[in-house]
Amino acid sequence: MAAVDPAYVTAKPVNPAGLPTSYEHGGRLTPEGSSVDPILVEIVQGTLASVEMEVETAIGRTSRSPMIRDAHDFRAGIHDRQLRKLTGRSYSALVHPIVRDYPIEEMREGDVFFHNDVYESEGGIGHLPDLCVTVPVFHEGEVVAFVQAFGHHDDIGGAVPGSMPSIATTVYEEGLAVPPIKLWDAGVPNRSALRIMTRNSRMPDSLAADLDAECSACLMGARRLGELFERYGREAIETSFDAILDTTTETYRREILSKIPDGTYVWEDYAEHDGVDEPQLHTQRITLTKVSDAPADPENGRPAGPRLIIDFTGTSAQAKGPINHCGDYVGGNFLKKWLAPILRNLADTPERMAELDVNEGIVPLIEMRFPEKGTLLTPIHPGPTNARTFVILRLLGVLAGVVAKAVDGKMPADQETIRYTGVYGKDLDGNDYLMREVLGGGSGGRYYADGEDTIHVVPDSRNLPTEFTESRFPFIVERLGLAVDSGGAGEFRGGLGYEKHIRMLKDGHFMSIADRSILACWGVRGGKAGAPFQVVIDPGGRDEREVDALADAEEIKAGQVVRIRTTGGGGWGDPLARDPELVVRDVVWGKVSAEAALRDYGVVLTGSRDAGDLAYDADATTAERGSRPAWSKEDDAFFDRGPGYSSLADGAAFAEVDKVDKV
């Protein structure tokens, strides 16, 4: 076997959780310039993707809970023995906490490791319902790789069903936290540990079944990878691993980082509430510096050349409520891979964008700088984290916004974020039930196309099928469609969110963990913000009321309807520049109302949709648009945050950083 390059990345002696980090990680497996067969690299890369998909397919077919089986809110990942993520089809958790607590040389075939403790996960787990299993891959008696899966499970205990209490002020209210443990020891399950976890869950049977599915699928994946090593040998496979990651590094350096001009750019966005304090602007700020000729930094595994420096200084203090996210671990390793997909929008074409994977190869190109402990991104234990999506998903938009300032807006407007909605109570047979759903929303308009409708930001996830929910839970889905006018107006319109109506057949409770109910998905370069999230119980009835976006136990009576409208994506470009024919088409399709066609786009319609002769008056439209001021880059804000922003910003129409000439 070839000698290993000694330039490993060595973790600091103590991580932010105060735990020792004696393991080495991140370095190459083979020396720089090792010869590699390009055909074998293609075979290995295809096999990795195939194994990862086979693991996910097995979990999806053998799990029990709706969140895993039907909503597909789980991920598999494959990592090498240096803990580097090799696959790029999806994101995954980290192997670091396992190797930290269980040295590789002490692992045995058939071992399965488990953890969900946010503060001991090295940043790979965001909240306690995300349970993670990790299986080492062996070749000739030594660990050569890892197969991992983590997913959002129905219930792991805590103050409310679903383990996501919106008013939590400590992690102790959020459920059972398990540091890294050996769940299977050389093929023998740890029944005692499983019993402890299921005893703390309101859904013990589905939890046990899901964990069994995940452990079995990862063990199967480990066997598949072991066969790959047996077929081609360890040296050839590890040389291929390095080549795969090297290709990603070089591709992003050449095709993506080169599109960002050297300089420093600043932008920020906000979570609007934390469930405990009154709504306010919880700031997430990024100062982005692009350097084309950064010197080599071998101690931290960064090569010479182009580099992005992402500095989170200016991010708000740790929230009292559960919107905090532990990001400052392993140099932000998880966050780098989480945020990097946004950079793909700089690819030359949408087709090329779809070809770019995000694996460990992007890590050397990004340097992250975190503020001191005690912020939204650097919380101190036992700060609550169950709604950390308000921060970690918002950061995707902050990075998109700060890059948009650097490239004259050639990035998408703001997209939907995860929100959890659901109902729970007693079903028609008197048994406890919990239906929780991750409904998507609209993506942002782009400089070349409209945003997509009802997308789900978690890859491959989906809403629950109506046929399934109606057969299992005591309600009827009376409507599931597009929320008209929810997409932000623009030359390229934002995508639409969902509108879903649920009629209860028995008294129950509604739950919601969502943001963007006051603020909205921002528009860029003259585009307007999308419509915010909204839930109304008994719309049009005598008990009509709007429900807060953070709700744990809102009562719903039998016969009442819950109307859910999810966020629309932001618009891109001045709406007055949109082709009137596209506006007419949108009205015909029911995506834009006739009122909004005139109000938002200045298009004067003729005829009617019902009669089938809808059109527009060209002269009247030109006159109408001419009477309105066009968007100006010099005079107007580069971003539109919607009317809700001023209500939280002391009446300000926009933030100082929203002007494109501000750094």
TrEMBL record:
InterPro entries according to UniProt: Hydantoinase_B (IPR003692), Oxoprolinase-like (IPR045079)
A Pfam family cross-referenced in the UniProt record is Hydantoinase_B
Question: What sequence ranges are listed for the domain Hydantoinase B/oxoprolinase?
Answer: 37-575
Known PANTHER family for this protein? Answer: 5-OXOPROLINASE RELATED, HYPOTHETICAL 5-OXOPROLINASE (EUROFUNG)-RELATED
Name of the protein in question = Hydantoinase B/oxoprolinase family protein
Q: Taxonomically, what lineage is the organism?
A: Bacteria, Bacillati, Actinomycetota, Actinomycetes, Propionibacteriales
